[in-house]
Amino acid sequence: MGVLTSRRSMAAAPFGGLFRVIDFPLTNLAMSGIERVGILSQYRPASLMDHVGIGRPWDFNGRDRELTFLPPYEGVRELDWYRGTADAVYQNLHVIRRHAPRDVLVLSGDHVYRMDYGPLLDRHRRSKADVTMVFKHMDVGRPSRFGVGVLGEGNRVTHYLEKPEDPPSDLASMTVYIFRTEVLVEAVRRNAEVGTTFHLYNEVIPSVVSGGRVIGHVHRGGWEYLRPLTAWHDAHMRLLGRKGIGVPLEGVLTNTESGGYGDAPPAWFDTSANVSRSLVAPGCRVSGQVRRSVLFPWVTVEEGAVVEDSVILNRVTIRSGSRVIRSVVDKDVEVGEGALLCGEENLVSVGKGARIGDGSILKAGTEIGPWEVVHMGAVVTPKGGPR
Length: 387
Hints:
By secondary structure, the chain is α/β, with parallel strands linked by helices. The chain contains 8 helices and 32 strands. Helix 6 packs across helix 7.
């Protein structure tokens, strides 16, 4: 995900003008009546932990409701770092034992979709499945970007392959699993002994499919798989279309305090502003042109500046006369007067806190890292030359 995840986990990545990606699964959990949630986070978790806190926006703090971060910790070895998703679950089996659930729902925290897990859990129990997993009909491609399953009689998963070269179906795994607790415990214990990648999706799930009862459910709603960065950008561009992405943003719960959204005034547009087919969040001040773009809170677009086909994150200032075309600009960036970010063939991406000097040109495919400074009038091409 390039600059977008150089200082944050994917679950903490902004999405949709106001939200973080993790807001979607947390909202799903809250609306499904699931009251005990653990977040297994290893990669740069600070912003994620700051955003989620104790789960108050999703009503996870209370006598019978609980949200807990479960990061790696110093244990019997010098550092029990998570080797993979299966190992992360294995190292937290004591948490599962404490709650003693009948079933465990395992989700990816970095996909955008809406789902009520309640009916899924009911079907899982009625079918007496060891594991229930959710699929989505997709153009999986060859080779596939996804795990791909094949459903047989009674929606039983007969085959599952992780990112196969020649996909046997168009059913992409959404990384939503319900395990019978004893099946999960035994599977991750076994994986800890004989695994090589220590991941659920490419070791545990295929082993249970080959030796257990795994049932598939096909999700009919929208689902956005946001990797790589171009997919994240494309999802925002589709969000601006008349049909959107099929994932309703209404009712998604978020922490407005962590980003200061709750204190932001309504967006302000000058008489010189020209805005079309765009999402403009509270706190923005627009005097220039904005077309087919998403502006997160507190963005300033000065008079004479142009923003097209771009996603601009919080507190970015785009100075007069600059042009930002098909770009992703992270938080707290300043784009100087007369600068050109030209991502028409390949995205231009600018990391958090960077400074783009007046009159500078960032050619297609350029990536500027967090806090980097592009000096006034510089011409920057992608590493390795133009693409």
